[in-house]
Design goal:
β3 (about 90-95), α5 (about 100-110) and β4 (about 120-125) form a beta-alpha-beta unit. The protein is an alpha+beta fold. The chain has helices at about 5-15, 20-25, 30-45, 60-80, 100-110, 125-135, 150-160, 190-195, 230-240, 255, 285-305, 320-325, and strands at about 50, 55, 90-95, 120-125, 140-145, 165-170, 175-180, 200, 225-230, 245, 260-265, 270-280, 310, 315-320.
Length: about 325
């Protein structure tokens, strides 16, 4: 297996076509096809399903693609840092669910950093990928949520990945809707009342289990569902299609404008936002500072809007062993 083969495979996945990928890579289609076939043979898997209309990733191919991207990105990062004697400048890396407050805190952290050169990394990603990022040291911290429903599954996965977690805050569930949505002015709304509107959820890829969903009540059967991959698209669709998504209730008008509002959701569950990190790992000063900024931001938001119902947790790490026993 070579980096070139991995780059070829990623290009084919992006183009969904050997012909178009070959043009993009400036190589012949037979050479590209031979390289992909050789990679599949070496790995002992089928990465692509070939059709007359193009190629599609198999389930095993999706999993292999995520690893291939990590290898190529890390190789590119290493080359950029060491080429011509340049030193590594990455100072902090973070992977997270799609939360605006995570971005707000990240912006504050970067603005506080006074060095002339740096490299920060923020990845809004899927649940499983966040855990993998921290497990493989692609990110120093991960931010995601656990609930009564998914707690045992997530904490057991963290345990098997040699990761611990720290509770950040607990929030009552809300729904995000556009300002002129029919339920926008309600004091509280139930899931049944929302069934006539499209429900938006974030794509979880091949790990699309109810337990890996970013939203509470993933097992609730909604007649209309739309799956998206990024926060900007979701917010645009909330406005355009008058749908809803289940979230923590903490919005940021600075980043998202004032067209989206938060409405409390009738629910017996809650969202516990946590940071994850390698077991027995001492956080860097920037990671520690980031968590302080994040909790301060949430606290200030709660003071402005007490209806959010968020409770800030003490700075205390929870081992995955003890957390799993509590579930």
């Amino acid at each position: 297996m070579t980096l070139t083969q991995l780059r070829y495979m990623i290009a084919v996945a992006q183009c969904s076509s050997l012909q178009n990928a070959a043009k993009q890579l400036f190589i012949s289609q037979p050479s590209l096809s031979k390289a992909i076939n050789s990679l599949e043979e070496e790995m002992g898997i089928v990465i692509f399903t070939r059709k007359s209309t193009g190629v599609t990733l198999t389930e095993e191919g999706y999993k292999f693609l995520s690893y291939a991207k990590q290898v190529v990105e890390q190789a590119d990062l290493m080359l950029s840092h060491y080429k011509k004697g340049r030193k590594i400048r990455r100072v902090f890396s973070l992977s997270s669910h799609h939360y605006a407050f995570v971005v707000n805190a990240f912006v504050t952290l970067v603005n506080e950093y006074t060095k002339d050169e740096y490299e920060f990394s923020l990845r809004e990603s899927r649940t499983y990928d966040i855990i993998e990022d921290v497990k493989t040291a692609r990110s120093e911290l991960g931010i995601l949520y656990i609930s009564n429903f998914n707690r045992s599954v997530i904490t057991n996965l963290l345990k098997s990945s040699e990761l611990d977690y720290q509770s950040l805050f607990i929030a009552k569930p809300h729904v995000f809707v556009c300002r002129d949505h029919p339920v926008a002015q309600k004091q509280e709304v139930s899931l049944d009342e929302l069934d006539e509107y499209p429900r938006f959820t974030y794509d979880q890829g091949t790990n699309n289990s109810f337990y890996f969903a970013e939203e509470l009540h993933s097992t609730h059967i909604a007649p209309k569902n739309i799956v998206v991959t990024d926060r900007a698209t979701l917010f645009n669709l909330l406005i355009g299609l008058k749908g809803y998504t289940i979230a923590s209730g903490i919005l940021s008008s600075d980043l998202n404008g004032d067209q989206i509002v938060s409405v409390p959701l009738k629910s017996d569950d809650c969202m516990e936002l946590i940071s994850i990190f390698p077991k027995n790992h001492k956080l860097s000063s920037l990671a520690t500072r980031y968590l302080e900024i994040l909790k301060d931001y949430v606290q200030s938001y709660v003071l402005t809007d007490p209806s959010i119902g968020a409770v800030i947790c003490e700075q205390k790490a929870n081992t995955t062993r003890s957390s799993a026993s509590k579930a």
